[in-house]
Amino acid sequence: MRRNQIWLSIVAVIAVLSLIGCNGSKSGAGADGGEGDGKQLRQLMPFERFEPNGDAVAQYLKEKTDYTVKYEMLPAENADEKLNLLMANKEPYDVLKLAPAQYYQLVSSGALEPLDDLIEQYGANMKQVIGSESWEGARYEGKTYAIPETGGGSGTASYALVVRQDWLDEMNMKAPTNLDEFVTVLRAFKEKKKVIPLTGGKVPVHPDIASVFGLTTAWMERDGKIIHSVEAPEMREYLAFMSTLYKEGLIDSEWGINTADKSIEKVASGKAAMYSPGWWVAPNLVNALAKNFPDAKLGIVPVLKDKAGVARVGSAGNTINYFIAVPKFAKHKEEAVKWLDMKFDKDIFKGIAIGEEGAHHKFEDGVYTPIMPKFADERSNASSFLTGVDEKNYPIYWQARLKKNPVVESYFATFQKNAEGLLVIDPMSAAPPIPDISKNLQRLNKYQEDTFINFISGTEPLDNYDQFLTEWRAQGGEEMVKAANEWYAKR
Amino acid sequence: MKTELKKTTTKPSTIRISAGERVFHALNYIFFALVSWTTLFPFLNLLAKSLSSEEAVLSGRVSLFPVDIQFGTYLYVLSDAKFMNAFMVSVTITAAGTAIGLIMTAIAAYPLSKPRLRGRKFFILMYVFTMLFSGGLIPAYLLMHRLELIDTLWVLFLPSMISVFNMLIIKNYFESLPDELEESAKMDGATNLTILLRITVPLSLPVFATIALFYAVGFWNDYFASMIYINSPELKPLQLYLKELLIHSNITYQDGGHVPNIDAVMNTTPQAIQAASILVATLPILLVYPFLQKYFVKGVLIGSVKG
């Protein structure tokens, strides 16, 4: 009997093995299938939560361009390490869609193919729809190594304060218009409603409050020079103000550890009165609140003004979000650029972004409206398939996506209306990846975040600000500012 | 434990100690109950979340019991082709990895457990050397590439076929088996293979069960290898799928509210579905434990050697 059992398990193992064998060889064949025929390409894209090869946009592109493209994604975590492994291994990708830091890393290590000649020869469409400023941003040592992909238009407001309007009405108060009124409202929420007046998550520089002090974006222009906002004297005033709010209990005592989810949870459960969400999280917030308190109402607070009556809204501007590059060891460089250029064709580009008229969207009175649910089913991940955009038309197509959700649409519209004429664009938005900034920024941001949380919560006295600034400069800040100014002067 | 307590209480001179002991035991119970509660609580919380409505989860009303009970999340997860595909990949590599891993580890351990093997110390040292030093990530990747294992299921279990630590455990177990068993089998005319298959293996089931569990849990939970070596979406195992499901599109204020991919910020996975996915992914490996339990408690060797 024992022997039978042993044989049985051996047979079982062999059966499993042969199964895997089949599997392995199948997938191998799929990957190598395209070698002979030039119409097959392989693209690497950043991580996104969907399966690109089965997506409707992939199908659409296959029909329209006649190229079969195998899409692969970097992992969600350790993406840079994986990218380096793939490049060290000369994995035969034809097209890479890269985040700015990744692009800089690869271009400076010589892994990318200069595209000037290929674009000259095959890139008629892309040369037409991408602006010269964006092309400039993709240049490295005088050569173009990538197609720059910009976003949904220059300058939009992403955040605004929202407030429990029903509570304001109950207390006979109006939405605040400047910092003094803001503090009065927060005090009223604390005393009369006994809730957290303002919640927020791990935000060292709260955009809606900091902009009142003149701190609009991380980089700012002062007298023709670029400075980082930590160097601005207003930063101290801002931190002092936040610190007094914290001491008085007017902002969440868990300010240093709140995540965005946690902050939404506090507003939705009626524990907090004000919060500054991005327009894209508005549906979660609004729906959860409505379910818990059917009578609750959220109001969007107009941009707060400073003592001189001036309001500002910082905006990152229309930066280059992705760089579309071709690696040096690609097998089909010409085909890759030809394919990329086809995607800039007016009709094909529109088809990628918002689908076919009548099927995926309607066009009425100059406005594109998605047709649901077909648009959601077939174009929900279309942005990932973009490899550069038609800079004139894409901002219009981009806004069509907002109409997928009425809450998003109305919040976005109100945020923009309130910010109209008040936008201050980050002066570094058009800059190409600058090595001295790329290598320091993430570390310094973390250092700034940690220290600012301490300043706000009072664990570290604000008198130490000079010390922080010296340390910030020594750890690479000085280098960063210098490099930023060099670019700005040459621009 | 109870009998022990009774014994001490019957002796009048030790009443005091017994009271102290009782307090000690009571505190022990409380302490370990709290410890087990802290490990149990996250599971119960996930279970409650997976059965609650998304609005209730978002507003933080769910802790131990579901609010607005629904089962749609489980229907969604179980009918999601991507999830099921990842699930099957995980089942395959766990089954194959555990079976082959166990066989390979056992046949590596068997000769090393015999003192008559020439150069035994040298071979053991070779194995132990790999426990302490490894080539590093990039050489490993290049090796897998040369072996043409990248982006195949093989790469997920073949390289980790023999864990030296597990091999040493099995070797020590083999060494603890009485030599007399082998001698008596030899007298009956058994060959080396017969001894291994008919005497050593049946006697070693408890250690095999333990090691099988180590391997199974290891393969089931591994996501690093698949993250590094797998490119094709259809070959991604469950843990990688989960990892990707749970990652948030992280836009911070420091980016100035900059939205690089509008679809990414608008497509969020409801938290209730995340919770359901985690539970469905964890359950199979939890279910293995009760079946292996009996091997842990049985003392197989009792009575095998007489005289």
TrEMBL record, chain A:
Pfam families: SBP_bac_8. Transmembrane segments: none annotated. Keywords: Cell membrane, Lipoprotein, Membrane, Palmitate, Signal. This is Extracellular solute-binding protein. It comes from Paenibacillus profundus.
From TrEMBL, chain B:
Residues 87-291 form the ABC transmembrane type-1 domain. Its main location: membrane. Keywords: Cell membrane, Membrane, Transmembrane, Transmembrane helix, Transport. It is a multi-pass membrane protein. SUPFAM superfamilies: MetI-like (SSF161098). InterPro entries: MetI-like (IPR000515), MetI-like_sf (IPR035906). It comes from the Bacteria. The chain crosses the membrane at residues 26-48, 86-110, 122-142, 154-174, 195-217, 272-292. Gene3D superfamilies: MetI-like. Pfam families: BPD_transp_1. It is found in: Cell membrane. The keyword Transmembrane helix applies. PANTHER family: ABC TRANSPORTER PERMEASE PROTEIN MG189-RELATED-RELATED (PTHR43744), POLYGALACTURONAN_RHAMNOGALACTURONAN TRANSPORT SYSTEM PERMEASE PROTEIN YTCP (PTHR43744:SF9). Belongs to the binding-protein-dependent transport system permease family. This is Carbohydrate ABC transporter permease. It comes from Paenibacillus profundus.
